[in-house]
Amino acid sequence: FAKETGTIQILMSDTGGGHRASANALRDAFDELYPGQIEVDIVDIFTEYGPFWPINAFVPIYKIMATYPILWQITYESGATPLGLWFNELMLEIFCFEPFKECMVRPSGSTEKRADMVVSVHPLTQDIPLKILNDVDSNGKSRKEGRTTPFATVVTDLGGAHPTWFNPGVDKCFVPSDALNKAARDRGVQSEQIVQYGLPIRKGFWADRGTNTGKSTNAQNGNFFEDLFAGLTGGKSNTETPKVSSPKSSLQTKLGLKENLPTVLIVGGGDGMGGIIKQANAMGEKLAQKGAEDGNTYQMVVVCGKNEQAQNDLSSKEWGENVSVVVNGFVNNMDEWMRSSDVIVTKAGPGSIAEASICGLPCMLSSYLPGQEFGNIAFVEENGFGKYSGDPQKIADEVSTWLSSPDMLSTMQAAALEAARPSATVEIAKDLAAMLFEHKKSLTQNAETSEEKKELVSQ
Ligand code: UDP
Predict the structure, then answer these.
(1) Which residue among 352, 361, 363, 366 is best mutated to probe the pocket of ligand 1, counting the most ligand atoms within 8 A of its Cβ?
(2) What is the pTM of this model?
(3) Segments in 193-275 forming alpha helices (H)
(4) Do strands 343-347 and 323-328 pair parallel, antiparallel, or not at all (unpaired)?
(5) Alpha-carbon distance 55 to 15, whole Å?
(6) Which of 413, 416, 432 is nearest to 424 (CA)?
C-alpha cells in the first residue's frame, strides 16, 4: 500500500515564543511519526499577510505590551468583552478576509496548492480562517454550504486563555488543562469537539525519564514511546528507540556545573523579561547566607534569554564562596538545564511550566503577563508543585525553605511529575494526522464514486 500523504497549514503569529514553539513541536512530531508523509507550512499570517499597520505589526506591538503589562491587560480584557469580541471579528472580516484568503489558497513555501488541512495555534486564527474556508470550500456559491477542509485548534496557553481561542465551528479543539476544557465548553465548543492531552512542547521534553528523582516520569503512560510507535507500525517501532536521558550528575558535568549541589535555575522567559537581575541577586545572596549558616554549597544557574544587560551584570558579580553561579544568555538546551536543577524560578509562561513539570521541577513563579498567564499560577499552585510571588526577596526565602526540607521538595517533585504530560505533543500529532488521512481518503472515495457515476451515465 502507498503511504498516505497530505499537507497541513499551521496558522499562528509570533506574539511571544510559544506559538511558533508549539507549531515546530507538532511539525517535528509529524516528521518523527510519519516521515516524508506530511508536509507542514507554518505561517505567521498577521506579519506576512496583514494588510497594513498595526495588523502586520502585532509582533513588535506585543513585545512592547509585554514590557508594560498594564497596556497588555487593557488590550486583553477589553478584547474579551462581548463588544471587544464583536469589534475584533468585524475588523478582521473587513481588513483581513481577502489578504488572509490569499495566504490560505496559495500558501507560502513549496506548496503551491491549498493545504489539505488547517491547524491554528494562535487565539486570533480561528474566526477569520474558518470563514475563509467556508467561502473557498463552497466554490464561491454560498458560505452557508459549508466547509470541507478539516480545521483544528491547538491551544498553546495552559491555565487561562483568551475567548477567541474557542470557536464552536472547529472540528477539534485540543486543550491542555481542565481549566481550558471548561473555558472551551463555556464558549459553546461541544465536549465531542474537545480533546485534552496537554501542551505541545519541544522534542527534548517528549520522553523524559526523570533524572531528577531517578523515577520514570512516565509511570502513568508506561513506556509511552514504545506504545505510540507500536500503534503506528503494527507492533514494531519504525524509529530508533529514543535515548534514555543521562543521569543528572553527568548532565551537570557536561554543562560545566558542579555535581550534586542543590541547584536553583532562574529563567526569565524567552526574552529574559521579568526582573531577572533582582531575582538572581536576591537568590544568590540568600543561598550564600544559607551556605554560610549550614556549611553547604549551593548552585544557581541564571538563564537570561535575550536580555544581554542582565547577562553582563550578573556575570561580573562576585557571589561568595558558598554559592556557585553560572550565568547564561539564551540557551537552546533548556531540557538539559532543567534536568540538572532541583528548583526553577520562572515567569509563568505556559511552555516553561509544562517543561518544568516534565522534569519534575518545583516552580517558583516570579511574574506573569496579565490575561492568559494569570491562570498559570492557579495551575501550578492547585497541582501542588509551586507558588507565586512577585517579590525577589520572598522568592529567595521561599526557595530556601524548599531546599531546607527534602520531604517538601520531593512531594513537590512528585506533584510536578503528576501534572506533566510528556506524551501530549505526539498524541496531538497522531490525532491531527488521523483527521488529515481520513479527509484525504474521503476525497479519493468521492472522486471514485463520481467517476463510476459518470461511467454509468455514459453507458
Ligand atoms: N527558552 C529557551 N531558552 C532560553 C529561555 C527560554 O529555549 O534561553 C524557552 C523555554 O524553554 C520555553 C520558552 O522559551 O520553551 C518560553 O515559553 P513560555 O511559554 O514559557 O513563555 P513566552 O516566552 O512564550 O511568553
Answers:
(1) 352
(2) 0.90
(3) 224-233, 248-254
(4) unpaired
(5) 12
(6) 432
